[in-house]
Amino acid sequence: MARARVLTALVVALAAGVAFDVAPAHAGLRTTAWNFDSETVPARQAELELWLTNLVAGVDGAAGTTSLLVAPVIGLVDGVELALPMTFDYSRADGATTMGVYGAEVRWRLAPSLLGRKTGWVPLLRAGARRSPASDEQVRLLGTAVLGGNPTPELHVVANLGVVAITDPSAVALEYGAGALYAVTPDVKLGLDAFGRHQIKGTGPSATLAVGPALALTHGRFWLALSVPVGLTSDSPDVAPRMIWALAF
């Protein structure tokens, strides 16, 4: 039942997103919800991103969590954007909603954009820091190498490899993922999204891996990425749907 409610909510949100109809989109489009892509917001422009993530775990989802991330993303110069994320987390185990973390991150595209090109590859670097309001000592440092490309005009591929380091208590984890989507129309892509995490130091699940279907949609200045990966290891969530939508300004 928990999984059905989650999927129903995501479908409703997708339908709401389709209702937008404004000028052509050219913002920092994400094609997979669990992996960063290599496009950035154009210089002196901005977009607002909302991420909804549900990690379903336990009997009837009793151990699951739902997180909402809100982030303005600002194009500083061509190929460099600044994001200011803030998260709110809900735990089904105790019914509590708390502010998760807040911070900043910079994404630097290292080659010309793929927009307007049928094929090609573009690398991007991401670096950021986030803090928890519950602790003055805890800082989360993030670093990710991203590669996005079009091996053919219709096929888009993205790969991520990153490290997360947390202070107090000290922890380090390796994060990785990949996605591939095929353009069924100029504005709609369908494919697969996968992500994993390996704990190197500290407590937490030793290894997670999830794979599932993905959808990417653009409509005017609105874009949406939706993925529903299913856990493949004992440490993984049963299912991990994530939806990201954004509106460019």
Explained architecture:
- 7% of the residues lie in helices and 56% in strands.
- It is built from one helix and 14 strands, in the order αββββββββββββββ.
- Strands 1, 2, 3, 4, 5, 6, 7, 8, 9, 10, 11, 12, 13 and 14 form a 14-stranded antiparallel beta sheet that branches.
- A hairpin with a 5-residue loop joins strand 10 (188-201) and strand 11 (207-219).
- Residues 1-28 have low confidence and may be disordered.
What would you report as the Rg, rounded to the nearest angstrom? 17 Å
**Largest sheet, strands/sense/barrel:** 14 strands, antiparallel
Mean pLDDT: 88
Counting DSSP H or I runs of 4 or more residues, the number of helices is 1
Q: How many β-strand runs? A: 14
> How much helicity do the residues have?
under 10%
Q: Which spans of ≥5 residues are poorly predicted at pLDDT below 50?
A: 1-28
Topology pattern, helix = H, strand = E: HEEEEEEEEEEEEEE
Give the overall form.
Answer: globular
* N-to-C span: 38 Å
Sheet-strand content, in percent, reads over 45%
What structural category arises from helix and sheet content? mainly beta
What's the quick description here?
This protein has 249 residues and is mainly β. The chain contains one helix and 14 strands, in the order αββββββββββββββ.
